[in-house]
Amino acid sequence: MNAPHPADLAQFSTIAWSALVPQIVADKRKAQVATLSTVGQGGAPAARSVVLRASDRSRASVDIFTDAATPKCAEITNDPRAALTLWREDLQLQLRLSGTIEIVEGLEAQAAWSALPDLALPNYGVTPPPGSDIPTATSYARQPDQARFAILRMTLFDMDVVSLAAPVHTRAYYERRDGWRGVWRAP
């Protein structure tokens, strides 16, 4: 059983931010997977699983890597508002983040590209572009293309954090505009 989370807003915020730090794992099945929701075509929500690659509390941002040719990049270009939901089973903690996304490419993304393992590089350069119709399940090619590598940098406006750790559930809401002070909310 997990220990209950603190009843102090500042400490609870620290736990939330520590939950956003990507875990270094040898087993990719344990990667920090979250659900990214953007404003899709026609204004409908579009959600997909992504891997959290970096977080920066001082900047209040999180990074996700993607192929720049994916539909989500077109959606973000059209409307940068987004939401990210993360469940940390080990902490019994749910985080719901909202903010805007900037697409970082080119020289700014080069250091992250250089740090990727060779096995991951073909994920950025799928032809035809991800989401395209293809005649058979394997009618595509994976060829690394650094020009197609992008970082989705989400700058947070707010964070809703729910702890289901026993014995008492807790929930807090934090906003950038009030300096991330936070308020308690009913879980």
Notes on the structure:
The protein is 15% helix and 40% strand. It has 3 helices and 10 strands; from the N terminus they run H-E-E-E-H-E-E-H-E-E-E-E-E. It has a 6-stranded antiparallel β-barrel. Strand 4 and strand 5 (93-104) form a beta hairpin. The chain is elongated, with a radius of gyration of 18 Å. The two termini are 19 Å apart. The mean pLDDT is 92.
SSE topology:
Layout: H1 9-19, E1 33-39, E2 45-56, E3 61-67, H2 71-78, E4 81-88, E5 93-104, H3 107-115, E6 126-127, E7 141-142, E8 149-163, E9 170-175, E10 183-185
Antiparallel strand pairs: 1-2, 1-4, 2-3, 3-8, 4-5, 5-8, 6-7, 8-9, 9-10
Brief descriptors of the model:
3 helices, 187 residues, single chain, two-stranded antiparallel sheet, six-stranded antiparallel β-barrel, mainly beta
Total of helices:
3
By DSSP, the count of extended strands is 10
Q: Give the rounded overall mean pLDDT.
A: 92
Instruction: Point out poorly predicted stretches.
Output: none
The helix/strand series, from N terminus to C terminus, equals: HEEEHEEHEEEEE
Strand-pairing-aware structural class: mainly beta
Q: Which strands sit side by side, in order, in the main sheet? A: 1-2-3-8-5-4
Radius of gyration: 18 Å
The proportion of residues in beta strands is: 35-45%
Largest sheet: 6 strands, antiparallel, barrel
Helix fraction by DSSP (H/I, runs of at least 4) = 10-25%
Shape: elongated
User: Terminal Cα separation, in Å?
Assistant: 19 Å
